[in-house]
Structures are given as C-alpha cells and as structure tokens.
TrEMBL record:
Protein name: Tyrosine--tRNA ligase
Keyword Cytoplasm carried by entry: yes
Entries under PANTHER family matching the protein: TYROSINE--TRNA LIGASE, MITOCHONDRIAL (PTHR11766:SF0), TYROSYL-TRNA SYNTHETASE (PTHR11766)
Record-linked NCBIfam families: tyrS (TIGR00234)
Binding site for ATP: K230
Biological role stated in the UniProt entry: Catalyzes the attachment of tyrosine to tRNA(Tyr) in a two-step reaction: tyrosine is first activated by ATP to form Tyr-AMP and then transferred to the acceptor end of tRNA(Tyr).
Subcellular localization(s) per the UniProt record: Cytoplasm
UniProt xrefs under InterPro entries: aa-tRNA-synth_I_CS (IPR001412), aa-tRNA-synth_Ic (IPR002305), Rossmann-like_a/b/a_fold (IPR014729), S4_RNA-bd_sf (IPR036986), SYY-like_C (IPR054608), Tyr-tRNA-ligase (IPR002307), Tyr-tRNA-ligase_bac-type (IPR024088), Tyr-tRNA-ligase_bac_1 (IPR024107)
Family statement drawn from the similarity comment of this UniProt entry: Belongs to the class-I aminoacyl-tRNA synthetase family. TyrS type 1 subfamily.
Length: 410
C-alpha cells in the first residue's frame, strides 16, 4: 500500500486538487507542504492535533513539512465557520503564543536540518505596504467569487468587516511566499479552509503560470471540528497545565461507540490490519478499543509514563481498583477555607474547574443532582466540607459519571 493509498484508507482525504500529482509527490517523499496554525491561544488543541499527526505521518515517508505559525494573520482572525468577529490580540500576546506553539510542535515534528521548517507569516505580513500589496496581489482576486466562498457564509449574515474579508488574501499570499521562498508545493488544512486554500493556488497559477499548474497542490485534512475537541468546559488542550493527561485520556476513552474505529484509523499509527480486526468487535469489546485509542493518543501527546498513570487513575475511579494517586488533584490552600475551616461545595466545584461558575455549580447540585463526594450524593448547595474531613490522600469529587477530581489540602 502506498502512502497515498494509506491516507485514503484511513479516511484522511476529503477534497483535493491534482490527485495524480499529489499521489506521485508524497509517495516519492518529494513533497514540501505546509499547514497553518493561527496562535489564538497559548496552547495547541485537539483540532491542531490531527494536523500535527498528518505532518508526522508524511514526514516519516520523507516529505518535508512547514509549520506556518500565523504571527501576522492572527492579528486579523480567520472568519471561517464563525458568526462573530474574533477578539483582537496584542502583538505581545501573539508572539508569546507563537513560542508556546513551537515547543509543543517539536514533540510531533523533527525540526532537524533540512527535515522541517517553522515559519512565522508575521515576518512578511506585518510590514506589508498596503498600496503595493493591493496592486500586485489584490488585483488577482474576484470579489464576486470571494463572496461565494464558504468561509464567509456565517459572517455575511452578521456583518463581515473588510478586515476579515482580507483574510483570504493574507492566507493566499502566505502560500505564494512559501512557494517562492521555500519551494512549497502543497497546502494542507481543515475542511473549513478549502476556499482560502484555493485562493492560494489560484494566486500562484495566475502570477507564475509556467511553473504552477503541477506543483501548486492543495490537500484537505478531514475532521469534524464541531464535534471533536470540544467539551462542556471548553477546548481539549495539548498543554498538560491546561488539560491534564488524565482528562486527555478520559476524553478519548469516552468517545462515542460509532467514532472509536474512525479515530483509531485517522489518528493512531497502529497498522490498518489490526484496526480492521476491531471492526468485528461489539459490546464490551468496544470499551477495549476505546482504551487502546486513549492510550495511543495520550502517549503521543504526553508520553508513555503519563498514559500509564492516566489509565491507572481511570481504573481506580471506575473500577475501584488501586489508589487515587493518579487522579488529577487540586490543592486547597488556607485562604480557600472560611474561619470555621470549611469550604462550601460551590467553591469546590469552581476550584476544581468542574463548573465554570458558582451559578453553574448550583444548578449541578440542586437541579441536575450530578454531584457526589465519594459515594454520597450532594443535593444542598450550602453543603460545606470540613478541612479536617479531607484525608491526606485526598477526597474524590464527582460530577456525573465521568468527571472526577480529587481535592487535597496543601
């Protein structure tokens, strides 16, 4: 099976241009390709994770990835799939986020000599001359065609600013610069980026007709961003300080039965033959498949040791076997307790981030009846925990069937 055939078999290809050229380039390990990452936070999340895994897979076959961090485009914000305008960030915040991205990406991509590149589009976008840019590159875009682009649909209904409208030009110019400066022939991206990616291809083909047709190739990474990588508490971050290895493990351990085989194919490096055998599994065997998925992905992000700890913590909570040492803990400090050395349950739930606010915590206690301490259901929002009643090994706080945190006294 060729690399291209494997990508097809794993369900990673959604839309693409110039299929024959794409297959030949990546199979021969001769593709230089890029994926863009706008640094809108100080950590990558699961939506980026799939892209990083694809880069890792292609790099292992000899292809050269370029990780493009959007130090320039992040100052505008991609309107794709949004109904509101992104919050503006300062240059200092963006640059800090870029540095955070670099550290995390190095876990997946080998940035050794001539193996991969990390490039910041702020290097060329921040100092652009507006008149020169619009004359040389804006003139290549048809506004009527742009308005039909999928990436603008949601924003058009609420009111699309010219700032956001220019995002396609910025991303297209990124591809043009990478093509000329680094010999990059391909762009990869999520399915919401298709219009922007075509813009880059068309720009190169219009301005460099003799070279561009066979080399400006766009490959689409398929993922369901609305379903994957989101929880009730927000995004699933790759930074262990923002989203613990235990929670990361549990996220994948709790995927729907209908998704587990799909994610095993798309995101793990297990042989397809092994995954195909799991197609026959049903009932309790699907839980085993979920454990395999959770272990493999947690290992990729956090390492084998953290995956083993997360697995042990899950068994301690759900099966009652083993200690609670590996369950994520939250330290309570002296100022968290009142003058009677007590802390109310609403404060605990906010402190453990199991609820985003006291009002949400109150609903969880009194309306949803989803809060337990140990095996005891808590229905009184005024319930208080005495400092003296918290064992040295910690006290388990449960929200629903799958959200567990341990509180300990510092």
């Amino acid at each position: 099976m060729t690399l291209y055939e494997e990508l097809q078999a794993r369900g990673l290809l959604a839309q693409l241009t110039d299929e024959k050229e794409i297959a030949e380039l990546i199979n021969a390990g001769k593709a230089t390709f890029y994926i863009g990452f706008d640094p809108t936070a100080d950590s990558l999340h699961v939506g980026h994770f799939m892209a990083l895994l694809l880069m890792k897979r292609l790099q292992a076959a000899g292809n050269k990835p370029i990780a493009l961090v959007g130090g320039g485009t992040a100052m505008i914000g991609d309107p794709s799939g949004r109904s509101d305008m992104r919050q503006m960030m300062t240059v200092e915040t963006i640059d800090h986020n870029v540095e955070c991205f670099k550290k995390q990406m190095s876990r997946f991509i080998d940035f050794g000599p001539d193996k991969a590149l990390m490039v910041n589009n702020g290097d060329w976008l921040r100092d652009l001359n507006f008149l020169d840019f619009m004359r040389d590159y804006g003139s290549q875009f048809n506004v009527n065609e742009m308005l039909r682009a999928r990436c603008y649909v949601n924003r058009m209904q609420e009111g699309l600013s010219f700032l956001e409208f220019s995002y396609m030009l910025m991303q297209s110019y990124d591809f043009y610069r990478l093509y000329h400066d680094y010999g990059c022939q391909m762009q990869f991206g999520g399915d919401d980026q298709w219009s922007n990616m075509l813009g880059g291809i068309n720009l190169i083909r219009k301005k460099d007709q003799k070279d561009a047709y066979a080399m400006t190739i766009s490959l689409l990474l398929k993922h369901d961003g609305t379903k994957m990588g989101k929880t009730a508490g927000g995004a699933v971050w790759l930074d262990p300080d923002k989203y613990s290895p235990y929670d990361f493990y549990q996220y994948w351990r709790n995927v729907d039965d209908s998704d587990v085989l799909k994610f095993l194919r798309m995101m793990t490096f297990l042989p397809l033959e092994q995954i195909d055998e799991m197609d026959k599994w049903e009932g309790a065997q699907l839980n085993t498949a979920k454990e395999i998925l959770a272990h493999e992905l947690t290992t990729l992000v956090h390492g084998e040791d953290e995956a083993v700890k997360a697995e042990a913590g899950a068994k301690a909570v759900f099966l009652g076997s083993g200690s609670l040492d590996n369950v994520p803990s939250v330290e309570l400090e002296a100022e968290d307790f009142n003058e009677n050395d007590e802390i109310d349950i609403l404060s605990v739930l906010v402190k453990t981030a199991q609820c985003a606010s006291r009002s949400e915590a109150r609903r969880a206690v009194t309306k949803d009846h989803s809060i337990s301490i140990g095996e005891n259901k808590i229905d009184d929002f005024a319930y208080a925990i005495k400092k003296a009643d918290i064992p040295a090994e910690g006290l388990l706080i449960k929200k629903g069937k799958k959200n567990f945190k341990k509180i300990v006294v510092k």
